[in-house]
C-alpha cells in the first residue's frame, strides 16, 4: 500500500515538473538574438525591440550576467531561461506588464518604486480595472466628498473575497465587503485619498485614487501572500498570517483556507481543527471536530455552508471535519454576541462560504495524503459563469487504519459483560473480520452573473461516512450441524452523513441596497445496524434467516428559505434586515430483532423569523450595532425575542475597546449518546416545550485590543448563562427478549465564563500567536446533583502557541497546546446487590458528577511545507510533512471501568500518539 | 503615556477577571462511600429479611462488603410497628407475617453513623388469575444425535394485570442439581434462577431458549413496584456516563421494595 502511494506521489511530481505551459503570458512575441551582458541590458533590449513592458530592479539585474542565444524562441521561453539563470521569477500582471522579481511580494515593491520614480506612470493604477456602471447614483468626481463602490477579488482566479476590509487612509472611514465581495464607501473627503484593502492570508494593497475615475465601479485584485525574501516596508496594517481578527467586530475570527496547508495537520487540511488553535475554542477534543466555543458544546455552534445548516460536521468518529478545504473560500467563526442575522444556536456561528471557482481559466488540482485523496476542478462556464467540483475520499491506508484501530482497541478493552455494542468476543469461534470503512464528500457549485447586478449560485454538498465492522463467524467443525447451515454473520454497520443544497440569488439593487435570498434543503441521516444473522435449515431443507440485534435510524430534513438585506444609508448608518422560515422533520427509530420497534418518533416543527439590525457610527471612533430577532416556534406556539447589541470604540488609533451582549435561543438539540462505540454518537431532536425545552442563553462580552502594523494584542472576557439545557439517556430495561428501552431527558442549566488573551505577530518571516484562555463551564442538572458541577467540556486553562516561519519556499510550523485535564466521574466504591431470584449485580458508587480531573492534555505538532513555485511566480502546489504529537504524550480520552473478580479495574482510553503524515497538493496551472 | 495608562487598566482588569475565575476543585459528596447498603424484598405472606452491609473499596476482591451488625431496625406499616432481630451478622429478620399486607405502605428506619437511614414502599396487590396454557413444556433437544431438531410448542402464561402494575416472572428449579438440556456450543453456564422482567403486560410466552435445564420449576409471578426495575438497572461503565445507581434508601444505598406473588408448578422436559 505504502509503495503504491509513494509511486503515485512520485508520478504526480514527475508529471507536474513537466508542466511548463505558460498560461498567463499570452504574448506571441518571438525572440531572436545573442546576449553576453548583464541582465538589465538584456531586458532593456527586449523592451525596446519587442515593445514589451518589463519592470525590474535595475541594480539587482545589473549584478546578473547573461550568456544566452535565442533562436525563434517564444517570449515566455526566453523569460524562463533568463529567470533561471538569474534565480528569479517573472510575474505577469493583468495589463500584461512583466515583473522580474525574486518573490511575488517584490512585485508590490517594484510597483511602488515605479510609481515613485514615475518611470512607468501607468503602473500606478495597474491593479485597478474599471468598468462602466450605468448608475445614476454614482457621484461624479468632484472636490467635495464622494462615494466609492467596488468589489474585492482574488487577482488570479477573479473570485470575490467576502469580509475583506477596505478603508480610507488617514481617516476612519471603512467598510467590509459583503458575501459577494462588494463594498461601498461614502463621504470620502477628497479625491487625493489613498484607500487600503486587506484580507486574511492575502497581500494587503494600497491604492491612490488620484488616477482613478471614482464614478466607475472599482475591481481591486488581491494576491495570496507567499514567501517574502526581503522585508518590505509597507505602511498600514498587514496580515500575512492564517488567522485574523477584526478589531471593530466583537469575537469574530477569520481564517484563510488558502494558507491552511502550512499548519501541522493530521492527514487533512482541516478547517474546523484550525479554529481549535484560536483562543476561546477548546483544543483538547481530538475525538470531535465540532467546535467547543467558550464552554459551549458543538451542537450550540451553528454551522452554515453556503447558507444551509450542516448537522454532521465531522468524519471518522470526529477526527476530521466534514469540509473539504479545497472547496472553501472563506470561514468566519463568531464566538459570541453575534449579529441578529444569525440565530437558532446558543453559543456560536461558523459561517463557511464555498469557493466559486476560477473566473478566468480552468484548472484542476488535488491533494494526496496518507488518509485521503482529493481532487477538484474549476472552470469558467461560458462568459459569466463559474463551476467548481471537488471530491474527497478516504482510503484504507496506514493512517486510516491507525485511527480505526484506536476505536477497535477500545472494543477489546471493553467489559466482558458489556451490553449492546460492547461485547464482540465470540469465545471459541474464529471471527473473520473484514472491516471496510471510508468517508467521502462532494462539493459542487455553479455561479453565474446575470447582468451587472444579479448573481445566482447553486451549491451542493454531500458527505457520508460508512463504518462497516461486519464479519462472519466460522464455527469450529464439531459445532456445525445440518440445521445450522452456516456460521452467524455479524452486521455492525453505521452510515451517517449530510446532504445539503442551496440556491442563492444576490442582487445589488444600487450602491446602497443589496439583497441575498436563499432557498435551501439539508438532510442528515444516521443509520446503525448491529445484528446477528444466522441461517437455519429446517427438516424440509428450507433455509431461513434469523436476525437478532438492534437497528437504529435517525433522519432529519430541513427546508429553509431566507432573505437578507443590507441598506447602506450612509457611512454612519447601515441597516440589515431579513426573514427566515424553516421546516424540520426529524425521525428517530430504534427497533430490535426486526420486529419490535422500541422508539418511534416523528416530530415536525417550523420556525418563522424576522430580524432588523442597525450599524450606527455617530462619530468616527464609535460604532454601535443594535438589533432584534424574533422567532415563532410552532411546537411551543410562542414568540421568542432576541435583542442583540454590540459596539466598539477607538480610544486611540491602536487601542480599541469593544463589548457585546444578547439573548439567544435554540430550538433543536443534538443528543450525544453515551455509547462511545456507536460510530455516529449523536442524533438530533426537536424541542417540544416539555421534556425538551427551548434552550436560551445570554452573552456578556467585553474586550480590548491593541494593534500595530505587525502585532496584535487582544483580550476578551465573557460570561454566558444557559438555561433549559437538555441531556438525554437511553436505558434498556429487562433482559434478553423482553426488554424495553426507556428514554430519559434531563433538564438543567449552566454558565460559562472566561478571559482570553492573544498576542499575535501578523506579518514578516515569522508569524504566529500565543493565546491563553482561562475558562470555566459549569452545569446543574437535578438528575445529577442539586449543586453546580464542572461541565464535561470544562477546561480551566488552555495555552496555545502557533509558530510559523518562512524560509525561501519553505514554511515551518510548530504548534503546542496545553489544556487542563477534563473533568470526569470516577467510582469511589462498589457494592453488590442480589435480585429477587438471587442473581448478583455489582454497582459503582460515585462521589459526584465530574469531581475528578484527567491529567493535563498537551502535545506538540510540527510541519514543514515546501511550496512548489514555478518560474513565472505561480504556486502549483506544495508538499508538507507533518508530525502530530511529536513527543508522543499520552493524552487520556476517557476511562473505562470493568468489574473483574469483584474488583473495579480502570483502563485508560487514550488519544492518538505520534502520527506522521505527508500531504502532496498539486494543481495543473 | 496614554497608552501606558490603557495597558495598566487592561492588566488590572485582566488580573481581576483571573481572580474571579480562579477555581477550587469540585468536592462532591465524599460521604456517599460511607453509606450502608440495604437489600430487602418484602413479600406479602413471607418472613421479612433485610441485609445491611458496607460498600467496598474498588480494589476489594470480596463479593460483598462487611456486614453491619448491631443495628436497631424498626419496620412499620402505619398501624403496626416491629423491630427486626439480627439472625446472623448483618442479616435482620422477623417472622411476623402480619405487617406486609397488600396495599399497605411499609417503612423502615435505623440509625447508622449519626444518620437516620430510612425507606418506604407500597405493597402491591396479589396477582390474580395466574394460569398457563399448559403446565408442561417439552423442549426439543438442541443437539440431537440425528441432527434434526424437533418443533417447539410454546406455553403462554396469563394473568389479569392491574392498571399501571409491573410484573416479574421467576422460574426456580426444585432440583438441587438440575439436568442440562443439550450439551452443545455455548451450553456451559451454571444453573441460576431465571428472572424475566416483564413490565406492564399480562402474558408471557416461552421460547426455545427460555429453559436450559429440565425438571420441576416453581414459577412465581410477582406484582412489583416500578422502583424494583429502576434500582436494579445498571449504570454506565465508562467515565463518560457514570452515575450513581438509583436507590430508594435515604442516607443509604440499595433497595427496599415490596412485592406480592403467586405461583404455579411447571414441568420442563427434554423432548
UniProtKB/TrEMBL annotation, chain A:
It is a multi-pass membrane protein. Residues 261-345 form the TonB-dependent receptor plug domain. Residues 1-21 form the signal peptide. Keywords: Cell outer membrane, Membrane, Receptor, Signal, Transmembrane, Transmembrane beta strand, Transport. It holds the Pfam family CarbopepD_reg_2. GO terms for cellular component: cell outer membrane. InterPro entries: Beta-barrel_TonB_sf, CarboxyPept-like_regulatory, Plug_dom, Plug_dom_sf, TonB-dep_rcpt-like. Its main location: membrane. The keyword 4Fe-4S does not apply. Belongs to the TonB-dependent receptor family. This is Outer membrane receptor protein involved in Fe transport. It comes from Pedobacter duraquae.
UniProtKB/TrEMBL annotation, chain B:
It comes from the Bacteria. It holds the Pfam family DUF4249. This is Uncharacterized protein DUF4249. It comes from Pedobacter duraquae.
Amino acid at each position: 500500500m505504502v509503495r503504491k502511494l509513494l509511486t503515485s506521489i512520485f508520478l504526480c511530481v514527475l508529471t507536474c515538473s513537466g508542466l511548463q505551459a505558460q498560461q498567463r503570458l499570452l504574448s506571441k512575441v518571438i525572440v531572436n538574438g545573442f546576449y553576453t551582458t548583464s541582465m538589465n541590458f538584456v531586458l532593456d533590449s527586449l523592451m525596446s525591440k519587442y515593445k514589451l513592458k518589463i519592470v525590474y530592479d535595475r541594480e539587482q539585474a545589473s549584478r546578473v550576467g547573461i550568456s544566452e542565444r535565442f533562436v525563434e524562441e517564444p517570449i515566455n521561453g526566453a523569460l524562463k531561461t533568463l529567470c533561471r539563470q538569474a534565480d528569479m521569477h517573472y510575474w505577469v500582471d493583468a495589463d500584461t506588464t512583466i515583473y522580474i522579481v525574486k518573490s511575488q511580494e517584490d512585485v508590490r515593491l517594484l510597483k511602488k518604486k515605479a510609481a515613485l520614480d514615475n518611470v512607468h506612470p501607468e503602473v500606478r493604477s495597474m491593479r485597478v480595472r474599471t468598468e462602466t456602471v450605468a448608475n445614476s447614483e454614482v457621484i461624479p468626481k468632484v472636490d467635495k466628498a464622494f462615494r466609492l463602490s467596488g468589489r474585492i477579488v482574488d487577482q488570479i482566479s477573479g473570485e470575490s473575497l467576502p469580509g475583506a476590509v477596505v478603508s480610507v487612509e488617514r481617516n476612519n472611514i471603512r467598510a467590509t465587503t459583503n458575501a459577494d465581495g462588494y463594498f461601498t464607501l461614502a463621504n470620502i473627503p477628497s479625491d487625493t485619498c489613498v484607500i487600503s484593502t486587506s484580507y486574511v492570508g492575502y497581500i494587503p494593497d494600497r491604492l491612490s485614487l488620484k488616477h482613478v475615475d471614482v464614478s466607475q465601479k472599482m475591481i481591486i485584485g488581491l494576491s495570496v501572500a507567499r514567501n517574502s525574501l526581503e522585508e518590505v516596508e509597507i505602511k498600514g496594517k498587514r496580515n500575512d498570517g492564517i488567522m485574523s481578527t477584526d478589531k471593530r467586530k466583537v469575537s469574530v475570527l477569520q481564517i484563510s483556507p488558502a494558507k491552511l496547508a502550512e499548519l501541522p495537520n493530521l492527514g487533512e487540511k482541516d478547517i474546523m481543527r484550525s479554529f481549535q488553535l484560536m483562543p476561546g475554542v477548546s483544543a483538547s477534543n481530538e475525538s470531535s471536530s465540532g467546535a467547543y466555543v467558550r464552554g459551549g458544546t458543538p451542537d450550540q455552534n451553528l454551522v452554515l455552508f453556503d447558507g444551509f445548516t450542516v448537522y454532521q460536521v465531522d468524519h471518522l468518529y470526529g477526527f476530521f471535519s466534514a469540509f473539504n478545504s479545497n472547496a472553501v473560500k472563506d470561514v468566519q467563526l463568531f464566538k459570541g454576541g453575534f449579529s441578529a442575522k444569525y440565530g437558532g444556536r446558543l453559543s456560536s456561528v461558523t459561517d463557511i462560504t464555498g469557493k466559486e471557482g476560477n473566473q478566468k481559466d480552468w484548472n484542476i488540482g488535488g491533494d494526496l495524503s496518507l488518509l485521503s485523496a482529493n481532487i477538484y476542478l474549476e472552470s469558467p462556464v461560458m462568459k459569466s459563469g463559474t463551476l467548481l467540483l471537488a471530491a474527497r475520499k478516504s482510503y484504507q491506508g496506514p493512517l486510516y487504519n491507525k485511527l480505526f484501530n484506536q476505536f477497535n482497541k477500545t472494543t477489546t478493552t471493553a467489559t466482558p459483560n458489556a451490553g449492546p455494542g460492547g461485547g464482540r468476543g465470540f469465545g471459541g469461534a474464529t471471527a473473520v473480520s473484514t472491516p471496510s470503512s471510508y468517508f467521502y464528500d462532494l462539493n459542487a457549485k455553479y455561479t453565474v452573473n446575470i447582468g451587472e447586478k444579479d448573481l445566482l449560485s447553486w451549491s451542493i454538498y454531500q458527505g457520508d461516512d460508512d463504518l462497516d465492522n461486519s464479519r462472519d463467524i466460522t464455527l469450529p467443525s464439531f459445532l456445525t450441524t445440518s440445521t445450522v447451515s452456516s456460521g452467524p454473520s455479524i452486521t455492525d454497520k453505521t452510515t451517517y452523513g449530510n446532504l445539503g443544497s442551496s440556491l442563492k440569488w444576490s442582487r445589488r439593487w444600487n450602491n446602497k441596497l443589496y439583497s441575498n435570498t436563499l432557498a435551501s434543503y439539508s438532510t442528515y441521516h444516521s443509520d446503525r445496524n448491529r445484528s446477528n444473522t444466522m441461517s437455519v435449515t429446517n427438516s424440509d431443507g428450507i433455509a431461513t434467516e434469523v436476525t437478532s440485534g438492534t437497528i437504529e435510524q435517525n433522519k432529519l430534513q430541513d427546508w429553509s428559505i431566507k432573505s437578507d438585506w443590507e441598506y447602506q444609508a450612509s457611512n454612519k448608518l447601515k441597516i440589515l434586515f431579513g426573514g427566515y422560515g424553516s421546516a424540520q422533520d426529524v425521525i428517530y427509530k430504534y427497533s430490535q430483532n426486526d420486529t419490535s420497534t422500541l422508539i418511534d418518533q416523528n416530530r415536525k416543527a417550523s420556525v418563522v423569523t424576522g430580524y432588523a439590525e442597525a450599524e450606527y457610527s455617530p462619530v468616527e471612533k464609535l460604532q454601535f450595532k443594535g438589533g432584534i430577532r424574533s422567532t415563532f416556534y410552532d411546537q411551543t406556539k410562542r414568540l421568542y425575542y432576541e435583542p442583540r447589541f454590540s459596539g466598539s470604540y477607538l480610544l486611540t488609533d491602536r487601542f480599541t475597546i469593544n463589548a457585546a451582549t444578547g439573548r439567544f435561543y435554540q430550538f433543536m438539540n443534538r443528543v450525544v449518546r453515551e455509547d462511545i462505540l456507536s460510530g455516529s454518537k449523536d442524533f438530533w431532536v426537536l424541542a417540544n416545550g416539555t421534556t425538551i425545552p427551548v434552550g436560551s442563553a445570554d452573552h456578556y462580552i467585553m474586550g480590548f485590543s491593541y494593534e500595530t502594523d505587525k502585532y496584535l494584542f487582544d483580550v476578551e472576557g465573557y460570561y454566558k448563562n444557559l438555561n433549559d439545557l437538555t441531556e438525554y439517556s437511553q436505558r434498556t430495561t429487562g433482559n434478553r427478549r423482553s426488554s424495553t428501552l426507556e428514554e430519559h431527558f434531563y433538564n438543567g442549566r449552566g454558565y460559562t465564563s472566561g478571559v482570553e488573551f492573544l498576542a499575535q505577530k501578523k506579518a514578516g518571516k515569522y508569524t504566529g500567536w500565543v493565546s491563553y484562555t482561562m475558562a470555566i463551564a459549569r452545569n446543574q442538572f437535578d438528575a445529577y446533583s442539586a449543586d453546580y458541577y464542572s461541565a464535561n467540556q470544562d477546561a480551566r486553562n488552555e495555552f496555545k502557541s502557533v509558530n510559523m516561519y518562512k524560509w525561501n519556499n519553505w514554511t515551518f510550523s510548530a504548534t503546542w497546546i496545553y489544556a487542563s485535564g477534563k473533568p470526569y466521574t470516577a467510582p469511589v466504591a462498589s457494592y453488590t446487590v442480589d435480585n429477587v431470584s438471587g442473581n448478583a449485580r455489582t454497582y459503582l458508587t460515585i462521589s459526584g458528577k465530574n469531581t475528578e480531573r484527567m491529567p493535563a492534555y498537551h502535545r506538540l505538532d510540527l510541519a514543514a511545507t515546501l511550496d512548489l513555485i514555478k518560474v513565472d511566480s505561480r504556486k502549483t502546489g506544495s508538499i508538507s510533512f507533518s508530525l502530530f504529537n511529536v513527543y508522543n504524550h499520552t493524552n487520556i480520552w476517557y476511562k473505562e471501568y470493568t468489574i473483574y473478580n469483584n474488583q473495579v479495574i480502570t483502563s485508560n482510553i487514550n488519544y492518538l500518539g505520534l502520527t506522521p503524515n505527508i500531504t502532496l497538493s498539486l494543481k495543473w496551472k | 503615556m496614554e497608552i501606558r495608562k490603557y495597558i495598566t487598566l487592561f492588566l488590572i482588569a485582566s488580573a481581576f477577571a483571573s481572580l474571579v475565575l480562579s477555581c477550587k476543585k469540585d468536592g462532591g459528596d465524599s460521604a456517599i462511600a460511607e453509606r450502608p447498603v440495604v437489600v430487602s424484598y418484602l413479600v406479602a405472606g413471607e418472613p421479612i429479611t433485610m441485609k445491611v452491609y458496607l460498600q467496598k473499596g474498588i480494589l476489594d476482591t470480596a463479593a460483598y462488603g462487611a456486614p453491619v451488625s448491631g443495628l436497631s431496625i424498626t419496620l412499620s406499616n402505619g398501624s403496626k410497628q416491629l423491630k427486626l432481630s439480627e439472625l446472623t451478622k448483618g442479616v435482620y429478620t422477623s417472622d411476623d407475617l402480619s405487617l406486609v399486607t397488600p396495599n399497605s405502605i411499609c417503612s423502615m428506619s435505623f440509625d447508622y453513623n449519626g444518620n437516620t437511614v430510612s425507606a418506604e414502599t407500597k405493597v402491591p396487590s396479589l396477582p390474580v388469575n395466574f394460569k398457563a396454557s399448559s403446565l408442561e413444556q417439552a423442549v426439543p433437544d438442541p443437539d440431537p444425535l440425528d441432527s434434526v431438531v424437533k418443533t417447539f410448542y410454546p406455553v403462554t402464561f396469563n394473568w389479569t394485570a392491574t392498571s399501571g402494575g409491573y410484573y416479574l416472572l421467576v422460574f426456580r428449579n426444585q432440583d438441587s442439581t438440575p439436568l442440562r438440556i443439550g450439551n452443545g456450543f455455548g451450553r456451559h453456564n451454571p444453573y441460576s434462577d431465571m428472572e424475566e422482567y416483564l413490565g406492564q403486560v399480562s402474558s408471557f410466552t416461552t421460547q426455545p431458549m427460555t429453559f436450559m435445564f429440565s425438571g420441576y420449576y416453581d414459577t412465581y409471578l410477582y406484582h412489583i413496584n416500578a422502583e424494583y426495575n429502576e434500582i436494579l438497572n445498571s449504570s454506565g461503565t465508562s467515565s463518560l456516563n457514570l452515575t450513581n445507581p438509583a436507590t430508594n434508601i435515604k442516607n443509604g444505598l440499595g433497595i427496599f421494595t415490596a412485592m406480592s406473588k403467586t405461583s404455579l408448578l411447571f414441568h420442563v422436559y427434554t423432548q
